[in-house]
C-alpha cells in the first residue's frame, strides 16, 4: 500500500524556484493597522531607581569638583 502523498510533489523549503508569485487578479485584503497597547507604563522608572540615579550623578559631580 502506498503513501497518501505519493502523487504530490515534494516540497523543498530551500528551493525558491518552487515558490509561485501571488495571483495578481485576486483582490488585496484590507490590512488592519496594529495598535500598540502597552502592558504597563514604561515612561517612568520605579522611584528607588530614580533616587539611585540622582545620588550617582551627585556623587560623580562631587568627585569632579575636587
Report on the architecture of this protein.
- The chain is mainly α and 66 residues long.
- It has one helix and no strands.
- It has one helix at residues 47-64.
- The longest helix is centred in the C-terminal third of the chain and has 18 residues, at 47-64.
- The mean pLDDT is 68.
Furnish the topology, listing elements before pairings.
Blueprint: H1 47-64
Give a brief rundown of this model.
By secondary structure, the protein is mainly alpha-helical. Helix content is 27%, strand content 0%.
Task: Report how far the terminal alpha carbons are from each other.
Answer: 89 Å
SSE-based structural type: mainly alpha
Instruction: Provide the β-strand percentage band.
Output: under 5%
Which residues sit in consecutive blocks of at least 5 with pLDDT less than 50? Answer: none
- What does the overall shape look like? elongated
Please state the average pLDDT score.
68
- The helix count comes to 1
Radius of gyration over C-alpha positions, nearest whole angstrom: 30 Å
InterPro entries: DDA1_dom
Domain DET1- and DDB1-associated protein: 3-50
Protein name: DET1- and DDB1-associated protein 1
Region (Disordered): 1-48
Write a concise keyword list for the protein shown above.
66 residues, mainly alpha, elongated
Amino acid at each position: 500500500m502506498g503513501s497518501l502523498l505519493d502523487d504530490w510533489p515534494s516540497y523543498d523549503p530551500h528551493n525558491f524556484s518552487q515558490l509561485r508569485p501571488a495571483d495578481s487578479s485576486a483582490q488585496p485584503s484590507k490590512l488592519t493597522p496594529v495598535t500598540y497597547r502597552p502592558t504597563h507604563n514604561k515612561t517612568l522608572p520605579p522611584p528607588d531607581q530614580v533616587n539611585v540615579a540622582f545620588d550617582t550623578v551627585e556623587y560623580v559631580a562631587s568627585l569632579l569638583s575636587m
